[in-house]
Amino acid sequence: MLPKSFIFKLPAAALFALTVSSGKNVAASTAWDPATPDRVTVSTIDLGNNRYTNVVATFNSVISIGNGAPTHNYDSYDPATGLLTISTIKVGTATYNDVVIAITGVISVGGVTPINATEPSTEIIPNDPLFADQWHLKNTGQTGIDRVAGKIGEDLNVSQAWASATGKGIQIAIIDDGLDIHHEDLNVVAGKSWNYITNTYGDPSSTIGSHGTSCAGLAAAKGNNGIGVTGVAYNAKQVGYNLLSVTTSSFDADSVTKDLQSNHIYSNSYGAADNNGLLEPSAEAWQQAIDTGISTGRQGKGVIYTWAAGNGAPEDRSDYDGQANYQGVLAIGSLNDQGTKSSYSEPGSNLLAMAYGGEYCSSHAVTTIDITGIEGSNDGTSNPEDYIGQPNYTRCMNGTSAATPEISGVAALLLEVNPALSWRDVRAILAQTARKNDPTHSDWITNGGGFHINHNYGYGVVDAAAAVNSAKTWKNIPAQKTATASANLTTPLTIADNNAATTSIIKLSNSGIHKLEFVDINITSNHPEVGDLKITLTSPAGTSSTLTTVHDCKLEDITVSCGSSLNDGMRFGVVRLMGEAADGNWTLSVRDGRPRDTGKLIAWNIKAYGY
Amino acid sequence: MVIEQETINMNHNNSNFTCTVRPTALSRWSINTSIGILIATFSFNVTAETTTHYYDGNTQHAIKLQPNLVAEFASNASAQARSTENANTKRPFVTIRKNVPLASRAAGSATSQSPVFREGDSPAGRLMALPGGVIVNFKPDWTDDQIQLWAKTHSYVIKQKLNILGNWYVIDTPPGLISLQTANDIHETGEVLSASPNWWKQTVTR
C-alpha cells in the first residue's frame, strides 16, 4: 500500500526489474497532471519481453517533444539512458506525441504481460486486507515504520506462482513454541497437532510466545478468504508441535519424525542460542531422525526440512550450527525489503537460499498472524508500531525464523505441482531457480558447477514462480551416492600461532559423483581457542568455502573464550558446491589469526553427497 | 525457559556430592537411589565448575558443571511423563535458578531438579540439564524382545521406542545426575551402539 506522499527513487536502469500487479488491468491513457508535476502515468511500456501497463513514474526533465504524428502506438524505455519515449500524452486538453523524458523512479506499476503471449498474465492478487502490507509476497515499495520504501520487486515472486499452485493437498508441520490452532486465518488439521507438555495429540498453544503461530501464518495462512493475511501456500494445511516447550533430546528427534506418513514439510525456526559464536554440534539421535525423514517420508521421496540459518551475525555463522548445517535440512537466511542481507542473518557455507525476514519492527519487519486476542506479540493497543485494533495480526515478525516458513510454503507449491519430487529435487530446484539478489555484493562467485553462490546469500533469494515452473517439468535427479575419505595425518599438523595457514589435502577418487549436492567435513583439533581459527575448504574445482572465521564468543555481551570446540570433533556442512565433481584434491586450510594459543590439526575427513 | 536471579544467599555447606556409576549390569538407579552406594568411578562436586563428559554416538563430549545454577522441571517425573497439571498451569517446562542448591543431593532421588551444565569448555557454552531418561541406540540386529530382555535384566524401564531408523529407545530415569551416570555407564559397557542422556538443551526461536 503506497501512501500518497510517497515518491520512490530508483535507478533508471533498474526501473523495470519489477513484479507488478494484475496483468488484467485495463490500461489508462498516458497523462500528466499539473497537480503532481513530478510524475507521469504511462499507459503501456514495452521492455524486453514484457509489456508493462499503468506505470506511474517520476521524472526530472523533458528532453524533447515530437512535432508530428506518434511513431509508435506504445511507449518505450531505454534502461541504458533512463529515457522514456511516450508516443502520446495528454496534458489537460492538449495532446503531445513522441515526448522524451528522463525518469528518476517509479511509484507503481499496474500490470505486466509477456509480449506476444497468447494468455494474459497469471498473477493472482489475494483479497486479504493485509496482503497489501506483505511486501515479502509482493514488494510494491511499501514503507515500514522508518518510512523508507522497500525495493519494488524484492519479494518471493509468488503471486505469479499461485495460478499454478497454492499448497492444496500439502501438510506442513510447524515445529516451534506453539500454534494457535483456532486462529481465524489458519487451516489446521483437527486433532493432529502435538502438545509436548502432555506428550499427546492436543492443543499445542504456546505457553511462551506467538512465534510458531506467526511462522505458520507466513507459511500457509489462508488466502483469498477476505480476512487477515496471505500465506505463501495459502491452501496448505498445517499442524503444530510445541517442541520449544520441552526441548529434550528425545523430543527433538520425535518432533521431526512425527506423523511422517501425513506431513510433507517440517518448518523449523529455532535452534541453539545465537549471538554467542559457539560451535554447536547436533545430536546423533536428531541426525538419525532427519535421515529417517528424508529416506522414508513421503513414501520414500523424503520430507522437506526447512531450517532457520540463525540470527547471530556478526558473531555467529550458520556453519557453527550442527542442525542448520546438516545434509538433510535446507538452511534459509533472511533479506530485508531492499533485497540485502538482514543485519542479523548469519552467513555460512551451509546456507541454501534466502527469503524475507526484514529487519526490525522499528524499521520494516514482515506481516503475518499473531495469537488470537490480546495474547501474543500484538495486543492491538499498546504497541504503536504494530496494528492497532487488529490483535490477531502483527507487522513485527522478523528473523531467519520468518524467512524459513516462507520457503516451507514455496516447497508446498512445488510438491503440489509435482508430487514426484524428492526432497533433493526440491533443494536442487530452489538453488537452480534462485535469483541473484544484491548482485554487486563482493562475495558472489560462480562455482565449478556454474551456480552463482555467496556465503551471505547461498544461491540467492528464492523465486517461487521460477521454482514452480521448473518443478512442472523437472526430471528427478538420480539416486544419491556418497563417498568418504580421510586425511592421512600420521602426526598431527601444527597450526602456527598467528601465522600462515596450515593446509592438508584429501584426494577423492572414483567416487562416481559427477555432480555434488552436499559435503560433510569433520574436523578434530586440540587448539584451545577455536575463535582464533579461520578454516576454509577448497573443492577440487577451486571453490573456496569458509567454515569458521576468527571471531569472539559472547556471554551476555561479554567477550569470552570460544573454547576448544574442535577437540571433540565437529562436523561442518557445505551446500555451495552443487554441480561440481567430487573427485580430486580437497584442501583444508586452517589459519590461526590471533597470538597466544596454539594447537594442532589432528584429523579431518570428508563425506561427499551427489550423483 | 525462565532464568531467575535469587536474592537470598544460600548455604552451600552441605552441597558436596559424590555419586558413582557401578558396572552396567548392576547400575540400577533405583538401587543407587535407595541405598546411595558409592563405588568410585564417577566423582562429582557440584560446588565447582567440574568438567565431565557424556557420549553422543562414539564421540565423547566435554561438559562443565555450573555450580551456581539449578534446573527445575515443571513435571515431577521425567520428560516422558504426562503431566496435565503442567499443561493446565502453563508453567514453563524448565526454570533455571541461580544460587539455589539442589534440593536433593542423593543420586537418583525423585526430584524435579537437575544440575546445569554448559556444553564444551567455553563460559558461553549452551546450557544443558537432565530432565530424566537415557537415549540408547541398540545394535541393529537386536530384536525388540532382546531389547526388552536386556532392559529387564538390568532393571531398566523402557519408556519409548523412537520413531527413527535403527533401534533407538528411551530408558526411564529420574531427573538429575543419575541420567548422565546411567547413560555413561550403559555406553561404556560396549553392549550398545551408544547411550546419551535425554538432555534438555537451551533452545531459542529465531
TrEMBL record, chain A:
- Active site residues per record: 176 (charge relay system), 211 (charge relay system), 401 (charge relay system)
Which keywords does UniProt give here? Answer: Calcium, Hydrolase, Protease, Serine protease, Signal
Specify the superkingdom. Answer: Bacteria
The signal peptide stretch is 1-27
Q: Which InterPro entries match?
A: Galactose-bd-like_sf, Kexin/furin, P_dom, Peptidase_S8/S53_dom, Peptidase_S8/S53_dom_sf, Peptidase_S8_Asp-AS, Peptidase_S8_His-AS, Peptidase_S8_Ser-AS
**Family, per entry:** Belongs to the peptidase S8 family. Furin subfamily.
Kindly give the PROSITE patterns that the UniProt entry links to this protein. Answer: P_HOMO_B, SUBTILASE, SUBTILASE_ASP, SUBTILASE_HIS, SUBTILASE_SER
Q: Does the keyword Signal apply?
A: yes
Q: Is rRNA-binding tagged as a keyword?
A: no
SUPFAM superfamilies in UniProt: Galactose-binding domain-like (SSF49785), Subtilisin-like (SSF52743)
Name of this chain's protein: S8 family serine peptidase
Q: Where is the P/Homo B domain?
A: 476-611
